[in-house]
Specification:
Blueprint lengths: L1 E2 L12 E8 L6 E6 L6 E2 L9 E10 L2 E2 L9 E2 L10 E9 L2 E7 L10 E10 L6 E5 L6 E4 L8 E9 L10 E3 L3 H21 L11
Antiparallel strand pairs: 1-4, 2-3, 2-5, 5-6, 5-7, 8-9, 9-12, 10-11, 10-13, 13-14
Length: 211
């Protein structure tokens, strides 16, 4: 809420109040809001971004034009809220029999809406209820590898952004499946390893065939 005492109106009704702001580290004022309220003594300024520093000033406008800007307000910071969005474009695909490769597009600096904590990965075997959690503190992270998973098992993965206030909505569930092409490739690799063992005379070596 911006409170003020109106100055001289030039004996003409005020048509609108124009709110200008310096945002974050900017040194330039820009128009962020205007309202037609001739008799107003306070204005609720809408559309401000969370966790952002502002300095405001007010300009009155009548039929003759705009007056001089007021003195700037004391700088203030808006409150934190949940991150604006989860990381986008989450992809999950098998990397090996027991690992999955994850990739995503990280948040921009102004999308965290608060003091950032990082990313939260939830994953589970398809058809089960229990989600496992992994937290990544790096704000610039755009990929991660899930390891030591159940061999050749399909998994569901979700991604969230977290700050000190709370958590974003989910990225949506991405499912990683071991398709026929991957299993054929793994089988070829398995057969090559068996042949190499036989050539070395390692007859007792046992390797599990992809199923």
């Amino acid at each position: 809420m911006l409170n003020f005492v109106p100055g001289f109106d030039g004996h003409t009704a005020i048509r609108q109040w124009i709110v200008e702001a310096k945002i974050a580290d900017s040194s330039v004022f820009q128009v962020i809001y205007n309202v037609s309220a001739p008799k107003a003594r306070s204005i609720p300024v809408e559309g401000l971004r969370p966790y952002t520093r502002y300095q405001l000033r007010l300009i009155a406008e009548n039929v003759r034009g705009r007056g001089a800007p007021s003195e700037p307000s004391v700088a203030f910071e808006t409150k934190q809220t949940n991150p604006e969005t989860p990381a986008s474009r989450l992809y999950a695909e098998p990397l090996s029999a027991t690992s999955l490769s994850l990739s995503w597009t990280p948040l921009l600096a102004n999308q965290w809406n608060g003091q950032p904590k990082g990313y939260l990965i939830l994953y589970r075997e398809v058809g089960t209820d229990h989600w496992h959690e992994v937290r990544i503190p790096s704000l610039r992270a755009s990929d991660f590898t899930l390891r030591d998973l159940q061999p050749y098992t399909s998994y569901e993965v979700q991604l969230f952004a977290e700050n000190m206030f709370g958590r974003s909505s989910s990225s949506g569930t991405s499912e990683a499946k071991y398709d026929e092409a991957f299993l054929k490739h793994e089988t070829v690799v398995w057969m090559k390893e068996i042949l190499q063992d036989l050539r070395r005379g390692a007859i007792g070596t046992t390797k599990k065939c992809p199923s």
